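PROTEIN DESIGN WORKSHEET
SECTION A - STRUCTURE
LENGTH: 71
TOKENS:
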């Protein structure tokens, strides 16, 4: 049986950010490939690490962080 899939994409051309939401890695890869072929622009995943580095302006402090066990 087919498995339903849903995804949403938003492109803010002013900031250059492309937001794409999917729960399937294959769908993410397909979107990235289609976007590159369609617009001849390469897009990269925006991870929480990169978001934090952009907010604080420097990734060096993030590299020194250690995980915390909350349980």
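SECTION B - SEQUENCE
RESIDUE ASSIGNMENT:
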């Amino acid at each position: 049986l087919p498995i339903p899939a849903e995804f949403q994409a938003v492109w803010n051309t002013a900031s250059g950010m492309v937001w794409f939401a999917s729960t399937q890695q294959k769908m993410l890869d397909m979107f990235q490939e289609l976007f590159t072929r369609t617009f001849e622009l390469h897009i990269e995943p925006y991870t929480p690490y990169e978001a934090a580095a952009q907010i604080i302006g420097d990734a060096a402090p993030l590299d020194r962080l250690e995980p915390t066990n909350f349980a």
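SECTION C - NOTES
The two ends are 39 Å apart (CA to CA).
The first strand starts at residue 8 and ends at 12.
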